[in-house]
């Protein structure tokens, strides 16, 4: 049993597996290559091809757009698409064009609205951890604070899809470890650039966060996203290792390089109130992988649906929707980036269980679900073009601004 299987609750009963396979029987590819076969289609760049095909699903016909990425090709790499800040959004095509990607898909679920907290602005920040260019941008929010469908049993907001410096893709978990060292001792740090902090904790915000308000970080609880915002908050700004200012409520606006803003709620706020202007403070933090010891070049959140060729137990087989997913094949050397079409004739989409089945039929050993619905977008360059074009039909009729995505890059 692999360490990854242990995290996802391995040891499935035979009855569970038979039930899952039975539920997937309605999904079948039409006009696609058999599992494990080389994918036909249009070459976008060396090692990158694009294809599309129909899927006969339980609720009707779905239409898939798929990028096949061969990481064995030294000219190909993957990295995070994002608008330059964690708390910001842009369309996938805008992000891909700005960063010079030849193709890409949308990424993680995100803080899309704040109807439960009138007057509090939605940050647009993603749910899970994010790493771009080998640099940790953010950590995961508590499970109860996420947006998106219910997580499969045994998974969490810390689950990621990533590509290591070894150029292999894998599923993993990235937990946050941090501390604040003061003259009086050490305080625990439990968040980095995330739109929701655990109750009673302190979180760090850096220049990577952007200029969005930090108030949302103190709203809701670890189990109830809609719970009221905390009335006991405190903020401390640290620049070049010294406290330079304090405030009773979280602020907004850009954070200068070399500056860290510490936001506390409840017990965390009480701890921060003990700090004073001019005090020496050292803030440390990192993301720790649960399975791999190989550093990640990029990673982003979502949730796993296929592990070592088997669907995770408890996958939803009732709610159909337009979806985006990633499959891992050939020992992490080949990726399949799939986005469903949102045109009216295909909008019934797939269930999460059907997504796992489709990704396995395409040859994936592991698969990961990303944000769907109006967010599902796949872009790729046309032959000879210098900019990407949207290949599927987003279900909103236009591209939805999203916080991040997976970018496919081609180098000479």
SSE topology sketch:
Elements: H1 3-7, H2 14-23, E1 28-30, E2 42-45, E3 48-57, E4 60-70, E5 76-81, H3 92-99, E6 103-106, E7 130-132, E8 135-138, E9 159-164, E10 169-182, E11 185-189, E12 202-205, E13 233-239, E14 242-247, E15 259-265, H4 267-272, E16 282-289, E17 296-301, E18 303-307, E19 310-311, E20 324-329, E21 334-340, H5 352-361, E22 366-370, E23 378-381, E24 388-390, E25 405-410
Antiparallel strand pairs: 1-3, 2-3, 3-4, 4-21, 5-25, 6-23, 6-25, 7-8, 7-17, 9-10, 9-17, 10-11, 10-16, 12-15, 13-14, 13-15, 18-19, 18-22, 20-21, 20-22, 23-24
Task: Describe the 3D structure.
The protein is mainly beta and 412 residues long. It has five helices and 25 strands. It has helices at 3-7, 14-23, 92-99, 267-272, 352-361, and strands at residues 28-30, 42-45, 48-57, 60-70, 76-81, 103-106, 130-132, 135-138, 159-164, 169-182, 185-189, 202-205, 233-239, 242-247, 259-265, 282-289, 296-301, 303-307, 310-311, 324-329, 334-340, 366-370, 378-381, 388-390, 405-410. The strands form four sheets. Strands 1, 2, 3, 4, 18, 19, 20, 21 and 22 form a nine-stranded antiparallel β-sheet that branches. Strands 7, 8, 9, 10, 11, 16 and 17 form a seven-stranded antiparallel β-sheet that branches. A five-stranded antiparallel β-sheet has the order 5-25-6-23-24. A hairpin with a 2-residue loop joins strand 7 and strand 8 (135-138). The chain is globular and about 65 Å long. Residues 1-6, 9-26 and 32-39 have low confidence and may be disordered.
């Amino acid at each position: 049993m692999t360490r990854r299987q242990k995290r996802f609750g391995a040891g499935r009963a035979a009855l569970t597996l038979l039930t899952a396979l039975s539920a997937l029987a309605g999904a079948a590819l039409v006009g696609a290559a058999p599992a494990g076969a080389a994918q036909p289609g249009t070459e976008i760049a060396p090692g990158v091809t694009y294809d599309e095909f129909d899927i006969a699903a339980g609720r009707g016909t779905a239409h898939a757009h798929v990028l096949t990425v061969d990481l064995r090709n030294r000219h190909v790499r993957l990295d995070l698409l994002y608008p330059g800040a964690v708390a910001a959004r842009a369309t996938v095509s805008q992000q891909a064009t700005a960063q010079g990607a030849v193709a890409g898909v949308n990424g993680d679920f995100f803080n899309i609205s704040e109807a439960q907290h009138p007057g509090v602005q939605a940050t647009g920040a993603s749910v899970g951890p994010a790493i771009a260019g080998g640099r940790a941008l953010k950590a995961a929010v508590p499970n109860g604070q996420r947006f998106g469908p219910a997580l499969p049993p045994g998974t969490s907001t810390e689950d990621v899809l990533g590509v290591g410096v070894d150029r292999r893709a894998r599923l993993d978990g990235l937990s946050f470890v941090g501390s604040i060292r003061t003259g009086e001792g050490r305080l625990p740090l439990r968040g980095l650039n995330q739109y929701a902090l655990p109750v009673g904790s302190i979180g760090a915000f850096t220049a990577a966060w952007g200029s969005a308000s930090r108030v949302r970080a103190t709203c809701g609880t670890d189990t109830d996203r809609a719970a009221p915002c905390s009335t006991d908050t405190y903020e401390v700004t640290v620049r070049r290792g010294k406290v330079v200012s304090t405030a009773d409520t979280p602020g907004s606006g850009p954070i200068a390089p070399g500056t860290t803003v510490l936001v506390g709620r409840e017990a965390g706020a009480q701890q921060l109130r003990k700090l004073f202007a001019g005090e020496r403070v050292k803030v440390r933090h990192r993301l720790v992988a649960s399975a791999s010891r190989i550093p990640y070049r990029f990673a982003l959140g979502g949730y796993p649906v296929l592990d070592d060729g088997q669907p995770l137990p408890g996958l939803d087989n009732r709610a159909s929707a337009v979806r985006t997913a990633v499959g891992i094949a050939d020992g992490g050397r080949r990726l399949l980036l799939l986005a469903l079409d949102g045109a009216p004739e295909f909008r019934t989409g797939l269930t999460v269980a059907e997504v796992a089945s489709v990704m396995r039929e395409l040859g994936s050993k592991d698969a990961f679900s990303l944000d769907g619905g109006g967010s599902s977008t796949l872009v790729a360059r046309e032959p000879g073009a210098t900019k990407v074009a949207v290949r599927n039909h987003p279900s909103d009729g236009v591209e939805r601004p999203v916080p991040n995505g997976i970018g496919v890059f081609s180098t000479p």
